[in-house]
Amino acid sequence: MKPPLANQRIVITGVGLAAPGAASLTEFRANLLAGKSGVSTIDLRYMGTHPAGRCTFAETRYRKKRENNRGTRAGCIGVYCAGEALQDAGIDFSEYERAATGVYIGLTEHGTVETENEVYNIGQYHNNVDYWTHHHNPRTVLNNPAGEITMNFGITGPHYAIGAACAAGNAALIQGVQMLRLGEVDLALCGGLSECVGSFGIFASFRSQGALAEHADPTQASRPFDRDRNGIVISEGGCVFTLERLDRALAREAKIYGEITGYAMNSDAKDFVLPHGPRQRQCMEQALRRADLRPADITLVNTHATGTKQGDIEECKAVRETFADCPLVRINNTKSSIGHAMGAAGVLELAGNLPSFTDRLIHPTINLDNLDPECELPGLVAGTPQQLEQVDAILNNSFGMLGINSVVIVERFVAK
């Protein structure tokens, strides 16, 4: 008798990504281990030049330039990442039905870039709305990037976007796990996307909050935990995973990156933008319980820390309390290398750490020249990679505005 789907183990079998400075997991991992920043600069409308993380990838590998022009930047990134994930997993839909495949994409926001551009364009014609594009509505609906993926690959199962601020990538992974266990789908494409560098408004808003990073050298602008940090480096990017139930993955002899064993989401219920460490700690503890793990069972904690003063401090308090008396736990930060990819942040950062299960290396936090005493973390890996004997479990933090918190735990796959 087959076990109930609710008890099925869920594994990651494919990864496709576009990150600042990298267009594949291999390239991304190499950059992280080398301490190489993917941050450069962007010339923004009305605002001039600012540090930003921008992506370069083969935009027409999976669809034509005409479709990219009709769609959105987020859709373009999403189609590329989904195509790479399917190819990496060896999925050609000969063993899975397109109607039983779900697409779940996390977004911080969507439509801002397109709307800003269209307002600017009609401004060149005395605000005559006759020049407003008829593509506006399909470009700006929230399900757009997920829908663009389904159209491109002929996927007829469910698709939707998950709006969870900067916790959205993790939230999409959680959704995929749940839908697989419910039996709603047999294959899930899950991830997060960000096109934020196309929006001057996002930059301007962070600057008005005093939370936009500035530095003469853009590669040193993103510096979580550093005493001289002064805000967020805004980045675009995307990452999509293929998730499968273990029995199906084993049956087709799929490569397995890791097993998702724990997750949690909760809300601070406190403030529009200021995080709340105690609720972050509760989220980590709930994920550990769901995974049936103790804090000491975690090998690596990938922090969310964005480079804001209070945000970094609140998370560090939560991590210190959760992993007190766990001297073997290692901690790192990926945003120091790529900036903050918003809705893509959680999944990009998880992807960058997944290879540690095989190479047993913990990539370093960079740009940490002068540690803020309030951000001191035992086990923090900085400057150079750290080699371990074994990596068993990764806990991935991802938190967002309006006080939404998410944690995903991935364990090294072991057949049982």
Annotation field: number of helices: 14
Principal-axes shape call: globular
Let me know the number of strands: 15
Topology order in helix (H) and strand (E) letters: EHEEHHEHHHEHEHEEHEHEHEHHHEEEE
The CATH level-2 architecture of the largest domain is identified as 3-Layer(aba) Sandwich
Rg measurement, Å: 20 Å
Strand order in the largest sheet: 5-4-6-8-1-9-15-14-10-11
Structural summary, described in words:
- This protein is globular.
- The protein has a ten-stranded mixed sheet with strand order 5-4-6-8-1-9-15-14-10-11, sandwiched between helices. It has a three-stranded mixed sheet with strand order 2-3-7, with no helix packed on it. Strands 12-13 form a two-stranded antiparallel ribbon.
- It is 33% helix and 22% strand.
- The model has no long low-confidence stretch (mean pLDDT 96).
- It is α/β, with parallel strands linked by helices and 416 residues long.
- It is built from 14 helices and 15 strands.
- Helix 7 packs across helix 13 and helix 10 crosses helix 11.
- The chain folds into two domains: 245 residues, Peroxisomal Thiolase, Chain A, domain 1 (3-Layer(aba) Sandwich); 150 residues, Thiolase/Chalcone synthase (Peroxisomal Thiolase, Chain A, domain 1).
Features:
Peroxisomal Thiolase, Chain A, domain 1; 3-stranded mixed sheet; 2 domains; 14 helices; 10-stranded mixed sheet; alpha/beta; 15 strands; about 425 residues; about 35% helix
Provide a brief overview of the structure.
Helices cover 33% and strands 22% of the residues.
